[in-house]
Amino acid sequence: MLKIGVIPARFQTSELHDGQKNLINFSLINNHKTIIVLGVHRTNGDKRNPLSAELRKKLILQNYPNVIVEFLRDEKDDVVWSTKLDNIINRYVNSNPKNSVEVCLYGSRDSFIPYYHGKYKTESPVNALDGLSATNLRKQIVEDFLTNKIKDLVSFAKGVIFSQLTRFDISYQAVDVAVVDYYNNKILLGRKKEESKWRFFGGFVDVEDNSLEDAARRELLEESGSYEKGELKYLGSIRVNDWRYKNSNDKIMTAFYTCGFVYGNPKAGDDIVELKWFDLKSFKYDQLVEEHHPLMDILKPYLDENIQSNIYPIIGSV
After folding, report:
1. 293-304: string of b/e by CB count within 10 Å (b at 16+)?
2. Topology of 171-306 in CATH?
3. Less crowded by CB within 10 Å, the N or C end of the chain?
4. CATH topology match: 2-136 vs 171-306
């Protein structure tokens, strides 16, 4: 009888730890063939999935050249994932039609086993994996670097360069808001410490923001304080030519909003050090930071269309 051991796992560590080695060794000892099925995350690399599938495969084969490594992408449905895992295993079972085949899937108690709904038996043969956290091992790499425990800095730097050159380019989502006092025909702008020109309020969307509107409200509160204002009105989106990303493949995309000022006392906050009201009729583009000129191009037609010119003057030209 041909015995096949299968280890579905992620192995998101820079080197195999003792628990992973014990699991592989157990399968090699008790089976004629060992297949490691590496889980592949559907999104780009992140803190839980920093290593590519190919790199993890190389790390495994460097230590265990006789195992077979397959890839299996994550699925939303556990049954679908289990079926695809079984299909991988079936290829090796069906390639031995003359022999009876016994298959066993190995993992720790908190691994894939509770989510597996396939036809093959599962087993937790060793307790070596219990108590070992790949997350903690990844965090330890950061700690080792910060405490100068990593000695081969050249190889370390090469790995960092590789990860940057092989990742997808990023479009960072931002929000910006124009605060307009329609009763006094003015617009409120802020200035950063290092700048002489003025800007709309805004910043990057936070992972804890539930919507772009929530992000816009948060940024507005952080940078201009608490005061009564109207509802946000979405005006459009556009790429921001931020000088920090001038020579980068990564870019910034912002969603632009406006809201009406009602009453209160705006107060500069966060990285905004000064606030100033500008008359809409006499406002000039060269008073605004260059990267926000396209935002003013979006705002101006909205004001021209929605404000009666004999009551609310339009924005002046450059």
Report:
1. ebbbebbbebbe
2. Nucleoside Triphosphate Pyrophosphohydrolase (3.90.79)
3. N
4. no
**DSSP states along 196-256:** SSBB-EEEEPPTT-SSHHHHHHHHHHHHH-S-EE---EEEEEEEE--GGGTT-S-EEEEEE
The CB-based long-range contact list for 130-133 (8 Å cut-off, 24+ gap) reads: 130/19, 132/17, 132/18, 132/19
User: 28-83 pLDDT, tens per residue?
Assistant: 999 999 999 999 988 777 888 888 899 999 999 999 999 999 999 999 999 999 99
212 contacts 256 by C-beta, under 8 angstroms: no
* Angle, vertex CA 250, rays to CA 207 and CA 199, nearest 5: 70
Both tokens of 238, joined, read 């556009």
Domain range 2-136, CATH class: alpha beta
* Number of other residues whose CB lies within 10 A of the CB of residue 284: 11
pLDDT number for residue 28: 95
Q: Buried (b) or exposed (e) across 181-214, using 16+ Cβ within 10 A?
A: bbeebbbbbbbbeeeeebbbbbbebeeebeebee
119-129: b or e for each residue (b if 16 or more CB lie within 10 Å)?
Answer: ebebeebeebb
- Parse the chain into domains and list their residue ranges: 2-136, 171-306
Average pLDDT over residues 88-112: 87
Tell me the C-alpha to C-alpha distance, in Å, between residue 188 and each of 15, 198, 208, 308, 316: 55, 10, 27, 20, 16
